[in-house]
Amino acid sequence: MNYTSSEIAKKIAGLLDDKKAENVELLHVVELTSLAEYFVICNGMSSTHVRALADEVEMQLSKMGIEPHHVEGNRGESWILMDYDSVIVHIFYKEMRDFYNLERLWSDAEKVDFLTSNSPKGSDEE
Q1: Tell me, what's the pLDDT at 74?
Q2: Structure pTM?
Q3: Which terminal Cβ of the chain has fewer Cβ within 10 Å, N or C?
Q4: For residues 25 and 10, what is the distance between their CA atoms, to the nearest angstrom?
Q5: What's the rounded Cα separation, in Å, for the pair 15 and 56?
């Protein structure tokens, strides 16, 4: 199954929102960097919540046949970065998010409203 970067990014943002991640932001950064097309940024309420959010993303995307190319920060649980090629997921503990303030660094990025968009289902394949 092939999904577009947009579908994957919206799916991840929706999953994080459903699992009570705080301040989920979906940024379209393709015009600003060659690192990725989308950044998904959020924070958890505790280190346990941060880990649970990352686990949920990894489990649900794996069910779709999508595996991360790289995951960093699994042990510290204050910032977990998940690299899905064109989508990079940043899951922070609140204090770390406030400190790094990625939204300020990428303030020129377009914010995408993922809440009004349908998440990809099996029928949304390309």
Answers
A1: 65
A2: 0.87
A3: C
A4: 10
A5: 8
